Amino acid sequence: MRMHMALAGLLLVIGAVVMSPAAGDASGRCRDRCPPPPPIHVVLKVCHPCTHCEYEVMVCIPACCTDVPCVSHHRTLIGAGKTVYEWKSGHQVVIRFPNGGGYRVIQRG
Q: Total domain count for the chain?
């Protein structure tokens, strides 16, 4: 009988621990957390390396990217090249130009 009481008490303690809300920090208080700011819609003007046609590419970048990006143009083994936009926060937008025309947008960071 004593074993059954100890087992029942142990199950109650485990249940109370599992059902209690998680603490936000070591002192037991939950911190108020704000959601991240919404992304910014930006239009990038990109020139095709072979045809010199200008494209307006609409991308969504994080709200922390408020500075002017560093722009670089690269040749590629496959396709007609790529243009890379990189912000100081580390976010990158790569616009690749396939041989068949058009463009493809890749975002990193």
A: 1
Q: What is the pTM of this model?
A: 0.66
Residue 9 lies in a domain: no
23 is a domain residue? no
Q: What is the CA radius of gyration of the chain?
A: 27
Residue at 66 is within a domain: yes
What residue numbers bound the domain in which 97 lies? Answer: 40-108
pLDDT digits (tens, 9 = 90+) for 65-104: 889 999 999 999 988 899 999 999 999 999 999 988 889 9
The amino acid at 102 = G
